[in-house]
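Dear colleague,

Following up on yesterday's call, I've attached the two folding results inline so they're easy to grep. Please treat them as preliminary; we haven't cross-checked anything against experimental data yet. The first protein's sequence and C-alpha cells come first.
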Amino acid sequence: MFTSLGDALQKMLKKYDIDKSIRQNQAMDAWNQIVGKAIVIHTVPEKVAFGKLYIRVDSPAWRNELSYRKIEIMKKINKKLQGEMIKEIVLR
C-alpha cells in the first residue's frame, strides 16, 4: 500500500515529537487573527518555548489590559490550534 508524502511526513513529525513544536509556533500566526487590530498594533508575538507564548507589548497600559485577558486569549488560541498547545502567555 502506498502512503502519500503528506501522511509520511506527519508520521515522521509525530514519531520524533516535532509536531507539537510546529503546532505551538502556529500560535504566533494565530495571535493576529484572534486578538484583533486594536491589540495587534500594540503587540508582537516573539516566540513560543515550552508551551509559553511570549508577547512584546508597547506600553504598560496595554500590558495591564492584556494581563486581565490572558486566559481568554489563551483559550481562543488553543481552540484554534485544536489542543492545549499554549499553557501560558508571557507579556513583556
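Below is the second protein, in the same order (sequence, then structure):
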Amino acid sequence: MESLQASELLKKGFEHSFITYPQEKPLKINEQKKALIIGVPKETHNQEMRVALSPSAVGVLVANGHQVVVEHNAGINAEFSDQDYSNKGAVIAYTQEEVYHRATILTKINPLESDELHLLQPNQVLFSAVHLGNVKPDYLKLLIQKNISAIGFEFLQANDGSFPIMRSMSEIAGITSIHIAAELLSRHTGGNGLLLGGITGIPPAVVTIIGAGTVGYHACKTAFALGATVKVIDDEIHQLQRLEEIMGTKIYTVISQQDYIEEAVISADVVIGATYKGGHRSPCVVTEDMVTKMRDGSVIVDVSIDQGGCVETSRITTHENPTFEKHGVIHYCVPNIASRVSRTASVAISNILSPILLKIGDSGGIQNLIGRDPSFKTGIYVYQRHITQRSLANMFNMDFMDIDLLYSANIYS
C-alpha cells in the first residue's frame, strides 16, 4: 500500500489533508471498465417517432469514455437535431449500415425490421422492445444464429420487481388513451357526439377500463379528472383496492368475471384495454359478442395491442390510419401510443437506458453485469445462442435455458 505524494494531493485540492490511499482498488476498477460503442439507429417501424437516447444522455455517456454513433436524423421526430447530438459528442453516421457495423451495443425502440436484422453483426448487444403480440420465431432464430445478446423492454425489471420502461410508457399511454378517446367520441370522427365529462344537467360519458395496472391507473385518473363516469375491471382484488387507495375516493370497481365484464363493456361509451402480464401476451377478455352489443359510435382504445390485445375484434393499426370500425364501434389499436408524444417518451426511455449502459461499461461488459445485477439479467431474452425467457420459448415451443446456468457455464468454462 502506497501513499499519494504531497504534490499530487495539492493538485487534488487536499492542501490541509494527509490521506493514505490503497492503490490496488482504483487500479482494479480501471482495469475492469470497458469503453462501449453505442449505436442509435433511426427508427423505421410503424411510424415510430421516438428515439432510444436523448442528446443529454449521449453527453453523459461520452463524458464517461464511451462512443455514441447516431444515425442522421435519428432524433428528428422527437425534436432532437443532429446538431443537438454532435454538440454532446456523438458521431453522426449518414447510413444505417455504418451504425450497425460500428456499434457493439445497439439501442432501439421497436424490434428490428427484416432488413435491419441482416445488418446485425455477430456478438452484438441489442436493447429494444420485443412486442410479444407480433414477435415471430424467425426473429428469435436469427438473433440466436448471430449470437446476439438481446434485452427486451417488456422483460427488464427494477430491483422492486417493476418494469421501469414499460411503466413509463404505460403512464404515457394511460393518460394519452383518454385524450384519444375524448377526440374519437366527437361526431366529426364518427363517434356518438358525447363530451367525455358532460356538462351541468347532462350526464358524462361512461369509461370502462380493463386492467388496474399502470395504464389503468393513469387512464382512470385522467378520465376521472375530466369528469367521466369510470368503471375499472381487474382480475386481482388487491389491484382494485390499491387503485381506490391511490385515487383517494370510492370508484366503481369490478372483479374480472365474464358477466361483470359484459355488463361494464355494453354500458360503456369508451372501453380502454389496459391488461398487462409481464413477459406474456395479454389475455383476451372482451369477446366479439360483447362488442356487437355496444352502442354505435362507442370507442375502444386497446392499449394492450402491442402485447396481442385484450379485445377480440382488435387488430394492429398505425398512426397514419389509427382507427377502424367494427360492429359500429370505433377501434383505436396503435401499438406505440407513446410515440404521439415522442419527445417526452424518448427522454423517459433514455433516462432508464443510459444508467444501464453506464453500468455495463463500468462492469467491463454484460457478462460481468449479469453476475452483479439481478435486475439487469431479468431483461435478457436471448443470450449465448439460447432463449432465456421461459414464456417466450413456450410461445413457439422453442428450447429454453436458464440464464444463470449459461452465466455459470461461461464463468467456469
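For the second protein, one point worth flagging: Residues 283 and 310 are 6 Å apart (CA to CA).

Best wishes,
A.L.
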